[in-house]
Amino acid sequence: MIPPLVSYSTFNRMGLTVRSITALLKTTDDFELHIIDNNSGDDTWDYIQSLSDGRIKSKTRFPINEGPIFAVNFNLAKRKSHQYFIALESDVYIYTPDWISRFMQVFETFPEVGLLGIPRAAPYPPYMPPVILREANGVSYLQLKNGKLGAEMDFIPGHCQCLRPELIDITGYWCEENGYGDAELSIRVNNYTPYRAGFATNITIDMLQFLPCGGCEGQSRCKLDKVNTTCFGIRDSRYKNESFAEKFRWKYLEYFNELQEEKRTVYCASIHDPASIGSHIYNKDWALENFNYYIANSN
């Protein structure tokens, strides 16, 4: 079996990136790691360049941040046939060293599972959308019951998601045309494919959103003055996912309207894969407008 491709995206907050990657590299399972720095304005890229591990297959720094969907699809386009794909964000600290094996146990036990994630963890408040417990042969997962369009948090959050290769063959990429990421992918999986989305139940993480400079493992590499400027302050000033979602919600709704009316298939193409655009519907104007929103506001 080909080791899964782990796509790791980071955007400022070097302190969390150092903490997260340190834990990730303690994973006892094999994987191929592809790291993207989405034009951080702190010392994140210097830290990434310092990393040396045979599992790291690529390190990419985008000169311009074009948004999280642009980044994750860049790595998804590198995936080999039959290779599982894991999207991981820099605020996830994984305590469970064999977490990939635990994902694979669920996929092997439940052939209907296409997308697996992990519930959001502290300091986020506990919340779970409607789910159904599935158990077999000592293995379990929580199946997303609905995945309703427009329902708040009725999806698998995007901080850590693992996709079955057969599902990717059907769904293609995260949708660049509406840019809604996790909120659109779970709906596509649950309602427009033979597969289901769900949560793994035995992988422990935390998702700290802030570290004091004195407690940061990367402080020796940080060149910021730490008084007027911190890596967290830079990130907060450039984080525009919420404003993007508000401004372009109409695309999200219209995309699923077209899908419901069978004006398009569930497969989403990507600008990183010209062949996919040539053989599937792709609203390039929508996608470029989404990328340009981040170019104008997140750099």
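(ticket continues) Second input and output from the same batch:
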Amino acid sequence: MVPGLRDYREPVHIFVVSMTLRNDAGDLLIVRKRGTSVFMLPGGKVEPGETHVDAIVREVAEEVGLTLDPDAVTLLGTWTAPAANEPGWTITSDVFASPWAGRPRAAAEIEEVRWLAPAATDAGVPVAPLLTEHVLPALRRADAARSPRP
């Protein structure tokens, strides 16, 4: 191996921020980027000098046209999973929650927006591992904790 060159056989890791936005029915907004087949949460990379909250507010505005109140953004969790569209890569994401803020639309690199019921066991579309392994189970637990018990 030549010094200073990365061995491309090694796994590659990236950090992103993601947003959970739920409509009045409790469905979760998921997006599919242009040229891909897997749905994921809106979000992306943090730019130099940006806080994670500033980054997710910017990414949501760019990708789905929604303006979020940074003071209403809360951290749901930080998780690591295989990357959805980059075989052999992993991602770690700070996953945020925010009140639903209007009607989302596909913008920038987003080809399609959809709503997904967190309780659904089959999304009917390919969904990112971060969602299936971490986010959806966390939302289901939170929903169950809020449900009235008989």
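Agent notes: The chain has one domain: 12-145. The first strand starts at residue 12 and ends at 21. Closing as not reproducible unless the customer responds.
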